[in-house]
Specification:
Strand content: under 5%
Strand order of the largest sheet: 1-2
Distance between the termini: 60 Å
Radius of gyration: 22 Å
Helix content: 40-55%
Low-confidence stretches: none
Number of domains: 3
Shape: globular
Mean pLDDT: 88
Length: 248
């Protein structure tokens, strides 16, 4: 992807994340909405002046240098942390809390408003996340995520172990009978080919969840709900059934 395409993609992503529209940009720059659409199109964007690009960047709260850095960072986003990085997160509950907030695109002020953290304390946690390369802390305590859209915690890593120990029982203790809650449990006997097909469906469902998460970023935080999705499949029968199996 060319540099200008990366910058345009970064601008569009910031518009979506901040819940701003082409019309908002047009109003701020005293242009028509159609003009903004042309400026931000892949074909026309290459002809955009540096001055106009700087104006759009400032509207989004970035300098021209910062929006360029945002674009360049999109090529180097991380897909996983190391085991030692995950260990550091789970060793400090407040650090893990701030990390989860950052991953969900919370702003500095929103974290302070929701949780019992002082400004200095929250800033220290963000600086720790910066050192772990999970985020980059920008001027004005703005948070830039350094993770790819398909970021995952390590399989059998410290974060997943933490969830098993501290979160799984709590997650499953609900009756799943309230609005926006659901649980489906089924059991069957599948061939290897059928299992392969269903694993593919699970991957698509995971991708859809990620897409809806990104789509929801344009909505104010108060209108978004922290939502957990647990997908699990394994070869299994209840231990009580297994105890009754004939010995070969």
């Amino acid at each position: 992807m060319s540099e200008i395409k990366q910058i345009l993609a970064s601008i569009k992503f910031q518009l979506k994340q901040q819940g701003k529209t082409y019309r908002d940009v047009a109003t701020a720059l005293d242009l028509s909405e159609a003009s903004i659409k042309r400026l931000l199109s892949t074909d026309s964007g290459a002809n955009m002046s540096i001055e106009r690009l700087a104006q759009i960047s400032h509207f989004l709260g970035f300098s021209l240098m910062e929006i360029t850095q945002e674009a360049n960072a999109s090529n180097t986003r991380i897909h996983t942390l190391t085991e030692s990085q995950e260990k550091e997160l789970v060793s400090d509950t407040k650090l893990l809390l701030v990390a989860v907030c950052a991953i969900n695109h919370w702003q500095f002020a929103e974290i302070l408003q929701a949780y019992q953290l002082t400004e200095a304390e929250c800033l220290r946690k963000l600086l720790s996340l910066d050192k772990l390369h999970l985020i980059s802390l920008l001027p004005g305590n703005r948070i830039r995520l350094n993770i790819a859209r398909d970021f995952e915690w390590l399989q059998n890593g410290p974060i997943r172990a933490y969830f098993h120990q501290h979160g799984l029982d709590d997650f499953l203790s609900a009756h799943f009978d309230h609005k926006n809650e659901s649980m489906v449990f089924i059991h069957g006997m599948l061939t290897d080919g059928a299992l392969t097909k269903f694993h593919a469906e699970l991957r698509r469902l995971k991708q859809k969840f990620a897409e809806l998460h990104t789509e929801s970023l344009a909505t104010p935080l108060k209108q978004r709900r922290g939502t957990g999705l647990l997908m699990a499949m394994r070869e299994w029968e209840p231990a009580s059934f297994g105890a009754l199996r004939r010995k070969n």
